[in-house]
Design a protein that fits this description.
The protein is an alpha/beta fold. The protein has helices spanning 14-23, 31-38, 44-53, 66-74, 77-105, 120-124, 137-148, 152-160, 165-169, 182-200; strands at residues 2-7, 27-30, 110-114, 129-134, 174-177. It has a single domain, classed as P-loop containing nucleotide triphosphate hydrolases (Rossmann fold, 3-Layer(aba) Sandwich). It has ten helices and five strands. The radius of gyration is 18 Å and the shape is globular.
Length: 202
């Protein structure tokens, strides 16, 4: 089984590429989905988050208020580091477990780890290849604003808070540019996936 790590900044289209590969038969392990699971009510990760940030990060039902937490850490590197430190170990554990289960089952040719942060553990160390999806800032800002309801200024701040494209590209085995239409992105992703599958079979 080959493991492709797909990453890229917010609004780049990485999750769209993951969905395209899923349609082609790959099994996707979604780090964002895992993060929601491990920070759910009753979980150890949420207990640690509340211990550090306080009960203010909970909503009226005792669930994590993700918007409030995101606002708290957005402009605070210390708090952001704390958030990452608390959640990453639980997310990594789940990713390792998912990949190991797929390997043991022996029914999957390609697994995809979809993750916004190309972490050393739980991503770079188990991916056979890293694919980075990049896009021009204007395109990313427009997508973020359309999807999340942010103003262009708020979307620009989100883009600026993440790794630069050149930092992502340093880690990449393959780079997919996503400045055009969804159809163009799909063609590029399908073409690359078919090419890789042919290479792996030889």
């Amino acid at each position: 089984m080959k493991v492709i790590g797909i990453t890229g900044g917010i609004g780049s289209g990485k999750s769209t590429v993951s969905r395209i590969l899923k349609d082609l038969g790959a099994v996707v392990v979604d780090a964002d989905s895992i993060a929601r699971t491990v920070t759910a009510r009753g979980g150890k990760a949420l207990e640690e988050l509340v211990s550090y940030f306080g009960g203010v990060i909970l909503d009226s039902c005792g669930e994590l208020d993700r918007v409030k937490l995101a606002d708290m850490v957005f402009d605070d590197p210390v708090k952001l580091h704390a958030l990452d430190s608390i959640t990453h170990k639980y997310i990594t554990e789940r990713i390792y477990g998912s990949i190991e289960s797929l390997r043991n089952a022996g029914k999957t040719e390609t697994a995809v780890i979809d993750a916004p942060i190309p972490a050393e553990h739980g991503f770079l160390d188990i991916a056979d290849e890293v694919w980075v999806v990049v896009a021009e800032p204007d395109a990313r800002i427009r997508r973020i604003a359309d999807r999340s309801g942010y103003t262009p200024e708020e979307a620009l701040k989100r883009v600026g808070s993440q790794l630069r494209d050149d930092e992502y590209i340093k880690l990449a085995d393959e780079v997919i540019s996503n400045n055009g239409s969804i159809e163009e992105l799909e063609k590029a992703a399908v073409r690359l996936f078919i090419q890789k599958r042919q290479e792996w079979q030889h």
